[in-house]
Every structure is written in C-alpha cells, then in structure tokens.
Amino acid sequence: MKKENIDNIVDYVVDLCELPSPSGFTKKTEKYLKEEFYNMGYEPQVTNKGSVIVEVGGKGSPLVLAAHVDTLGAMVRAIKDNGKLRFTKIGGYPANNIEQENCIIHTRDGKEYTATIQLEKASTHVHKNIEDIKRDNKSLEIVLDEVVDSKEDVEELGIRTGDFISFDPRTVVTESGYIKSRHLDDKASAGILMELAHYLKENEISLNRKIYLVFTSYEEVGHGGAAGIPEDIVEMISVDMGAVGDDLETDEHKVSICAKDSGGPYDYDLTTNLINIAEDKELNFAVDIYPHYGSDVDVTLRSGFDIKHGLIGPGVFASHGYERTHVEGLKNTFKLINSYITNKY
C-alpha cells in the first residue's frame, strides 16, 4: 500500500471530522460525500433518510460495506432565564466527556453560534468540592459567546429548543502517525472506504463480486442500517471502530475483527474468512468481543435481511470521548477490506 493512499485516508478523515454531523443533522457531510464520489467518477445516491450509497463495481453476490458519518452531539432542550442553555444528548456518552468543550449551536434558519459547555458552578475560586458534582444535563450548561442575560436575549438571536449542537472535533495528526479527534467513530472508517473507492477507480481493480459502499446517518441513535440498504445483498460488513480497553486484544495499530457484540455473534463463515485473510496477508489484527457495542449491520438484520454479517474496524482508544487511532490501524483495515473484495476465499 503506497504512502499516498494512507495520506489520502488521513485527508478524508480530517475533512470528515471537521464537518458537523450529529445524528439527524448530516446534510453537510452528505454534500461532501456526493461531491467527492462524483469527482471520482461514481454516481452516488442519497436515500430519503440521508444515507449515501455508492456502487463501486463487480457482479454477483452483492456485498455492502457500511460506515456511518453521523456522530455524537446534542440539542437545545431549553433556554434558561439567565441566557444559558440546557441540552439533551444525541447518542450515548457520559456527560463528563463534554465538559469544557467548545461547541456550535446550529439554528433552523442556518445561523451558527459558538459556545462552551461548562459546569453551572464552574469556578473553583467560588464553589467548593466541584469534583464531587455529578456531571449531567442538569449540572452542565451551554454558555453562549454572545452578550445575553435572559431568555429573551437568546431568542432574539434565533436560537430555539430543538436546535442542533455539534462539538469541536479538535482534530490533530501527529508526526508519529496518531490521529486524535472527536468523531473518529466512525469517520476514520468512512475515510477508509472513501479511499477504497478512489483506489479501485484509479487502478481499475477487478472485483470478485458486486460491492456497495453505504454511509449511514443515524447509527449513533440506533437505526442507521434499518432502511436504505440495497435489497439484493447477501452479505454486509459494518466498517466501524475497534474498541480499545480491558480484555480486548486490539490497539490503535491493529484492525479489529469482531466475533461478538451486545447483539450476539457475527456470522461464523464471514468472520472466519476475515481472520484467514488477515493471517494470510500477515496483517496486524485482533479478534475481539465488544460487551457494550452495536453496529449498523445488527440493525439491518433486525429489519429482516437474510444476510451474512461481519464487523471490522481500526482500533480506536477512548471511544465516545476525545478519541485516538493510528495510521497503521487505518492501513491494516484498508488492506483487509481490499483483500476481501479482490481475492477469492
């Protein structure tokens, strides 16, 4: 795999992370994907619920490779009398993971306002025992970077209940190859699939089957893969993240092959094939079981599809927080996918 392919993946990941896309608010990311795939020479389609589908070639035994481009975020729940905002979470994460984070409020008429998520009792010079306060959407509030002192002041800006809130990704690529950012779940794997499409087109690669790439927009709230999946598929692989932590073999340098998550075991034959390929290609990989995890393909199965299913992804540390992966993890994931769709196993 050439360095330029890795560089392309990193560029795609950085671009995607910079685009705000909490679940249900993915229009900018959809537009970006459509433009990039058109420029590659493909004909992307957008479903009613906002998934982007790209057919990249091949014939027979259709396979979907799915990544999600929606992220964690929040929504304005209420405007306080003092001009601060209460929020409700979009997706699952502990509230302490967003304390002191910069954010943007996106109004329904297209305005954007910067803000910071702070503890109500934020100053250690005023309040004792701040560390003992439970962090939740009652103790945390959103402080606008605007001169506002009342609910009426905020409403005059056009901010209303139900406006989306995105978090500052703080994306950093280090010289040692680490990528630190919010939303690497799942924009790291979305970037991998984008470069896969580019690589296939540029090199006129022959595929061993029909391949769709699907980028879903509601995975973080549990129904990304419930609709908009091509009806003719016989297999589907969620290309998501490999969770790093206790009892797990993966790390940021590996591709993780999931054998089981909270939805149950993944297909035996498909998972075994992925393991065999990883061994044959001498990839840096791990086989893992994720105790608190669900993927798009789990939802697709529950929607009634009769398919074989799998889950892989680069190792991502501190999932649903300020996350980190490494270019080696991206590379190993790319190689595993490419080998699976271009060789017969």
Ends: how far apart?
A: 21 Å
CATH superfamily placement of the largest domain: Zn peptidases
- Structural class, judged by helices and strands? alpha+beta
Helix content: 25-40%
| Form type | globular
Low-confidence spans: none
- DSSP strand count: 19
Q: What is the CATH T-level topology of the largest domain?
A: Aminopeptidase
Number of helices: 7
C-alpha-based Rg, rounded: 21 Å
Highest-level CATH class of the largest domain: Alpha Beta
Brief overview, please?
The chain has 345 residues and is α+β, with helices and mostly antiparallel strands. Helices cover 27% and strands 28% of the residues.
What does this structure look like?
- The chain is α+β, with helices and mostly antiparallel strands and 345 residues long.
- The protein has 2 domains: 3-71 and 183-342, Zn peptidases (Aminopeptidase), CATH 3.40.630; 73-167, Peptidase M42, domain 2 (Elongation Factor Tu (Ef-tu), domain 3), CATH 2.40.30.40.
- It is 27% helix and 28% strand.
- Strands 1, 2, 3, 12, 13, 14, 15, 16, 17 and 18 form a 10-stranded mixed beta sheet that branches. The chain has a 6-stranded antiparallel beta sheet with strand order 5-4-9-6-7-8.
- Strand 15 and strand 16 (264-265) form a beta hairpin.
- Helix 2 runs parallel beside helix 4 (184-203) and helix 4 (184-203) packs across helix 7.
- The longest helix is centred in the middle third of the chain and has 20 residues, at 184-203.
- The radius of gyration is 21 Å and the shape is globular.
- The two termini are 21 Å apart.
- The mean pLDDT is 96.
